[in-house]
């Protein structure tokens, strides 16, 4: 059982590591911002609904208070008419009592709507504060996202450069350059040797020509002595 638990934990840690490697910081941050904006839209919609309920409660309260005042005015008029003799006192009392009951009902409704209005306004104030906090958070993370994108650009370029530099030694590029230098040196030496051979050939030709030239001069000198002897000019 312990072995199974250990294997499960190992597999779980490897799964988490694989997920971490698949997570792109920029994409994850952008997704987080999208989620925050959705939350902001929902919060704004909810705030608008709560404010609408507060406005409705306020309007209803004003209506109930107006009705209560109106019923009170009617009760007063009924009693005044009875006092003047225009209406039977008993009937006036009955109708004035009914009007006061209606006034009490509207006063109760006005009190209820006033309580609802206060509750809705408090909720709206709290939600408004939450919306402001959410907006500030979104603005902060938008700035963080721009910073992250810049950092990713720099890190990506740095990784590419360092990777190229690392591959210089690992791929044998330096050794290849050294071999090329050696090969060029061999070619230069070979060219120099061919030049020396060509120069040596020219030297041999010069020696041959010089030797031949010396033989001809000796023969010319002999012929000159013979001519002088013939003419009797020789010593």
UniProtKB/TrEMBL annotation:
**The organism's place on the tree of life at top rank:** Bacteria
Coiled-coil ranges from the UniProt annotation: 124-151
Q: Does the keyword Cytoplasm apply?
A: no
Provide the alphabetized UniProt keywords: Coiled coil
Does the keyword Coiled coil feature in the UniProt annotation?
yes
Q: Which family does it belong to?
A: Belongs to the PspA/Vipp/IM30 family.
**Protein name per Swiss-Prot or TrEMBL:** Phage shock protein A
Q: Which organism is it from?
A: Hymenobacter artigasi
**Where is the organism placed in the taxonomic lineage, from the top?**
Bacteria, Pseudomonadati, Bacteroidota, Cytophagia, Cytophagales
């Amino acid at each position: 059982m312990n072995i199974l638990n250990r294997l499960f934990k190992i597999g779980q840690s490897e799964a988490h590591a694989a997920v971490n490697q698949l997570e792109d910081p920029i994409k994850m941050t952008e997704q987080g911002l999208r989620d925050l904006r959705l939350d902001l839209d929902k919060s704004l919609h909810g705030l608008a609904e709560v404010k609408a309920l507060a406005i409705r409660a306020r309007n209803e309260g004003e209506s109930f208070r107006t009705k209560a005042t109106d019923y009170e005015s009617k009760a007063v008029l009924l009693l005044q008419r009875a006092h003047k003799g225009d209406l039977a006192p008993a009937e006036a009392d009955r109708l004035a009592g009914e009007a006061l009951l209606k006034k009490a009902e509207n006063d109760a409704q006005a009190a209820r709507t006033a309580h609802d209005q206060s509750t809705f306004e408090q909720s709206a104030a709290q939600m408004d504060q939450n919306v402001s906090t959410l907006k500030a958070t979104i603005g902060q993370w938008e700035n963080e996202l721009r910073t992250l994108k810049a950092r990713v650009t720099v890190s990506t370029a740095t990784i590419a450069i360092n990777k190229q530099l690392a591959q210089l030694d690992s791929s044998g590029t330096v050794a290849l350059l050294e071999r090329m230098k050696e090969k060029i040196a061999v070619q230069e030496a070979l060219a120099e040797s061919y030049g020396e051979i060509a120069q040596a050939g020219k030297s041999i030709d010069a020696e041959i020509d010089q030797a031949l030239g010396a033989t001809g001069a000796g023969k010319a000198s002999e012929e000159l002595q013979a001519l002088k002897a013939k003419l009797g000019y020789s010593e």
